[in-house]
Amino acid sequence: MSNTATTTADTTATTAGETDEQLKAEWREYAFEGEPKLAVEDLNVHYGDDHALDNVSLDIPKESVTALIGPSGCGKSTFLRCLNRMNDRVSSARIDGSVRLDGEEIYQDGVDLVELRKRVGMVFQSPNPFPKSIRENIAYGPKKHGDIQTGVLARLLGRADSDELDALVEQCLRDAALYDEVKDRLDDNALGLSGGQQQRLCLARCLSVGPEVILMDEPASALDPIATSKIEDLIADLAEEYTVVIVTHNMQQAARISDQTAVFLTGGKLVEYGDTDQVFENPQSTRVEEYITGKFG
Ligand SMILES: Nc1ncnc2c1ncn2[C@@H]1O[C@H](COP(=O)(O)OP(=O)(O)OP(=O)(O)O)[C@@H](O)[C@H]1O
């Protein structure tokens, strides 16, 4: 599409009578500078006979927030989970198509899934800290992956270098805007934190292994308005350094925090994708307009 950043796949809404193929060709032209961090092409997901994602293609720019919105069951979470191959864990799932991370196909033989999920981390709907101390929640991943440098003494003692670990714990908690609230109780059990604090701890845990992309599946849906607002502020800050992809049911939230918005509608189709302002203020598709204005969904 030459003069607009919004793309649409809704044939019923177009005046020029474009075919699906023509519209699909336009998807690739959603304009942003630089190479995409994630490039998704012709992605289809079936759970048994259920076609959950129907030929979805979109490019996600780096260091930005991309919101995925749409009615319940339209495939948002399925799409999100394809971006770090979490759907591989679902035995009934069949995934076809291509997802490239920095140009590298993630659905090819030999991809190290542990490494992939370090690069493409995930924060879930309900905060799910480990029943361990705040410190241990963050140290767990780097220790498991052997990312903490160990000195000779530390190796002899069979433990990680504590200074480095402490610095990492502090940095991740700061980046998750939680440090000041918990700095005096790092050895307390994480389950004693409030829901909003637990969710920020989960984000800190995700950051601890050095991701490039952060996937968030309705990260604020279980939180009160104040905790939600903290998470939203945090997402804006994170986008300076990370590529954030977030599923949300809350359209105001998508409009507030995202740079791009992708709208999925029933049947697992991506119907519109473009600059958030344009999608919300001037959607190209009548079905998207009806969804956004609350006429259905
Ligand atoms: N693990 C699974 N096994 C079988 N079917 C699944 C599984 N996960 C999702 N589905 C089906 O795939 C379709 C898309 O579900 P998905 O959870 O991706 O949608 P969603 O848009 O994220 O929904 P919601 O907004 O309600 O969370 C639905 O029909 C759902 O029942």
CATH level 4 superfamily of the largest domain: P-loop containing nucleotide triphosphate hydrolases
Computed over alpha carbons, the radius of gyration is 20 Å
What are the bound molecules? adenosine-5'-triphosphate
- Whole-number average pLDDT? 86
Annotation field: number of helices? 12
Which outline best applies? Answer: globular
H-E string: EHEEEHEEHEHHHHHEHEHEEHH
CATH class of the largest domain: Alpha Beta
CATH topology of the largest domain: Rossmann fold
Q: Could you list the spans in which at least 5 consecutive residues all have pLDDT below 50?
A: 1-5, 10-18
CATH architecture of the largest domain: 3-Layer(aba) Sandwich
Strand content: 15-25%
Give the biggest sheet: 7 strands, mixed
Q: Summary?
A:
The protein has helices at 20-27, 76-82, 113-119, 134-144, 152-157, 162-175, 179-182, 195-207, 225-238, 251-257, 276-281, 286-292; strands spanning 7-8, 36-47, 50-61, 65-69, 93-101, 104-105, 120-123, 213-217, 243-247, 260-265, 269-275.
